[in-house]
């Protein structure tokens, strides 16, 4: 801490613009250090670093500090065309670089405070931009990143839709633009506390070969910003539509992973489930001599009936599909269904499936195939069981008409017993048998 370094300390100035020692007072202060832990590596923002060592001890030791220095080429930090008036903002145009590195100022040394840097990526109309952070280390001030942060926008500037705000330590952070432009803003707060985070380093690429999003935008899906081809589909109340593999109806692109998040309604009046019916399916499978090994080792479509949304739960799938046989219909266990499509080296025709959002009544019995609130109880299937109102014991939906039919065999009769009954009576037409 700054206040504990009273008798002996080292001050660091890494943002010095002038070589005159008298101008240090006008340079941003880079931190004061003492004790046994050395400061992290420093790289100058401009062309100079100044160190100021102070001691008022009567006795000194021979090994106070020591280190190494080197002069490096500044071109490593020039991501693209410099923006006039900013020490760290660049325009990256496809006409100059198709691929390259993006690196924060003074990386991997501790980055400066009170800084605002922008990186504007401009591609051609048929391209998308891929950004991969291979090292990301910013001060973590909380889940909403109120202090230092990197913001990524899906467009030409910071008026475009926000992809996300990032701080702390990020791993495997890979982002894609929806179209041909991407905008990155790196901001650090002005403060007195010492922070020694590195910043970030990554790579960028403009390409026409990334997944085209037509298979999402031309249907009812919504592309999840920042992903290559993930989408979400929200129910319009008992609505239906189609989902497709990337590039459908043409063969899918090798080596891509696309996720589908299909969400039915869930509130006080609505509860839905998702039904999925395939009409085309072609994902090449690999035959193995060991029959215990999965044939879907090249490409696959995994289905999660409980709607898993976190990466660490993706190994708990309910169905793993590949081959050319049309899969049977599947129904979610709740209001959400998730699919993960992964293509391998082999190409195939892909898939087409119809999704339907059906009202979930949570009534035991054989449901009507048309999805209405009609349930049948047959003696030949089960001799006894239970029945209940829709979603019992939770609130039942309004404007609901349900029928329950109990069918016995020719030599049987049916007995029903109500363990609970609170059906509201209309007071104007109450009869002796009504309950209210």
UniProtKB/TrEMBL annotation:
<protein>
    <recommendedName>
        <fullName>CUB domain-containing protein</fullName>
    </recommendedName>
</protein>
<keyword id="KW-1015">Disulfide bond</keyword>
<dbReference type="InterPro" id="IPR000859">
    <property type="entry name" value="CUB_dom"/>
</dbReference>
<dbReference type="InterPro" id="IPR035914">
    <property type="entry name" value="Sperma_CUB_dom_sf"/>
</dbReference>
<feature type="domain" description="CUB">
    <location>
        <begin position="229"/>
        <end position="358"/>
    </location>
</feature>
<dbReference type="Pfam" id="PF00431">
    <property type="entry name" value="CUB"/>
</dbReference>
<dbReference type="InterPro" id="IPR053207">
    <property type="entry name" value="Non-NMDA_GluR_Accessory"/>
</dbReference>
<feature type="domain" description="CUB">
    <location>
        <begin position="88"/>
        <end position="207"/>
    </location>
</feature>
<dbReference type="GO" id="GO:0005886">
    <property type="term" value="C:plasma membrane"/>
</dbReference>
<feature type="domain" description="CUB">
    <location>
        <begin position="373"/>
        <end position="436"/>
    </location>
</feature>
